[in-house]
Structures are given as structure tokens and as C-alpha cells.
Amino acid sequence: MEDRHLIPTKSTSVGPNLHTEVVDPYYRATSQLTSLLASFEANTAADVGCGYAGITEDIAIALPPKATLYAVDTDPEVFPASYKPASCQVIELVQDVYQLELPTQVDAIISRFLLLDLADPLAAVTAMRRWIRPGGRLLLLEPITTTGRIGTRAIASASDEIVDQDIGLRLYDLLAALGAEEITIDAFTPVGLGASLAGRYLGAMTGVDPAPSTFISLPTLVLACGHIQ
Ligand SMILES: C[S@@+](CC[C@H](N)C(=O)[O-])C[C@H]1O[C@@H](n2cnc3c(N)ncnc32)[C@H](O)[C@@H]1O
């Protein structure tokens, strides 16, 4: 069974200073996110906790050429040398989400794989909310890690940094706590064999090298979107 039958997966080169090829099996979630951004006609946005191999470039490509995207992370080492295919302006900010200070309010804030590492996700989304203009959107992508399977075995993350590996289950409540309206929730579960890109992604995530023919189901990724007034 070839990978493309189950999980067509996108590869992203994350910049000449990092020399890393990154495989993102969650590209369907990214694609849904960028479609949402296009439907909102966002001209200003921020990717908070953008990381070195995240979706900043995908977001930048989806925004109109005159748009501005703030890429925010506490770690100054994560930023690539360029966001080549994007035509909009990308401004990098080294900041902590809890003390977020964007130059201006934005149409949309996006955050992927950040809240699961944080001790106080509600404080983090509250800080994000302050920088979304009335009528703007907050888009959160976080996993329900324990839905993942290697064969029939459940997945647990090997990372010590993770505070709540199932934070995806809390996204609706977090958006509701902010008073967000028109909350939509979507979920994505990439699957593939152990030898597939999904299997390799899992191996990198858990340290477990799955057998080539073992069926893998990656953790469900929840995409939650709320309208901020
Ligand atoms: C797991 S990575 C996710 C990166 C990227 N968003 C993605 O989807 O692949 C989490 C990122 O959040 C950053 N981070 C952690 N705590 C943060 C904080 N308090 N404020 C801002 N960024 C933070 C880390 O430096 C890291 O780059």
C-alpha cells in the first residue's frame, strides 16, 4: 500500500539556515486554515509560537501581497532566513505569548502546537484576544494525542515539554471562555503505514520506529476557529 493512497503529504524546506526538510502530514488542516483566512479576507495576521518548521510560510502564501504577518516566538533561533514563496511582509517578533505586544491589532491570530506546552492556556489565548480587532478571528490547532495509534497501541508523546497532550479537547471551551462567537471545530487524523511519511513523522515524535507494514493513525489535530467581537 503506497503512502499516496492514504496520506498525500507535503514536504517543506524551512530555510537555508536550517537545512532541514520537514514533512507535515497535517497539511489538510493547514489547507482548511488557509481557506478560512481567504474567506475572512485577512490582511493582517499573527502566527504565535510559530516555531522553526511550522505553518508561517503557508499562512504568508495565503495572505494577499499587501498583507502583514507577524511571526512570534520566544526562541530567536526559529526564524528562517526567508519566507521565499510568500509575497506579503513577514515581521518576526521575539516575544512571550503571555506578554504579547503586536504593533497593531490584527484580523486573525493563528497558533498551532503551542497551547499543549503551556501551563496556562487560558491566559495565553486571553493575551492573543487583546490583539485581535473586533470582528477578527482566533484560529487554534492543537492535538488530541491519545487518539493516535501504532497498530492497536495508543500513542503517548515522548516530549517532557508537553503539559496537556490532549489540549485539542479543550479548544472549544477556551474559545467560549473568551466570549468568541460562531465557533467552528474541525478535526484531521492522518493515517498511513509504518514505512509511510505518517509513520516516519510518528517515529520522530515518539522515538518509536514502527514496523513498515504497521498501520499508523496519527493524533487527531483539532482546528478551532472563533469570531472575536
Ligand atoms: C511545538 S513548537 C510549534 C511550532 C509551530 N507552531 C508548528 O506548528 O510546528 C512550539 C513553539 O512555541 C514556542 N513557544 C513556547 N512557549 C512560548 C511562549 N510562552 N510564547 C511564545 N512562543 C512560545 C517554542 O519556542 C516553539 O517554537
Descriptive report:
It is a single chain. The protein is globular, with a radius of gyration of 17 Å. It has helices at residues 3-6, 27-40, 56-62, 121-129, 171-177, 197-206, and strands at residues 10-13, 21-24, 44-48, 68-73, 89-94, 106-112, 132-144, 149-150, 153-154, 181-188, 191-193, 215-217, 220-227. The longest helix is centred in the first third of the chain and has 14 residues, at 27-40. It has a seven-stranded mixed sheet, sandwiched between helices. Strands 9-8-12-11 form a four-stranded antiparallel sheet, with helices on one face. The N and C termini lie far apart (48 Å). It is α/β, with parallel strands linked by helices. The protein is built from six helices and 13 strands. Helices cover 22% and strands 31% of the residues. Residues 1-9 and 13-20 have low confidence and may be disordered. It has one domain (10-227): Rossmann fold. Helix 4 links the parallel strand 6 (106-112) and strand 7 (132-144). The site of S-adenosylmethionine (SAM) has 17 residues, from loops. Residues 49-51, 53-55, 73-75, 78, 96-98, 112-114, 117 line the site of S-adenosylmethionine.
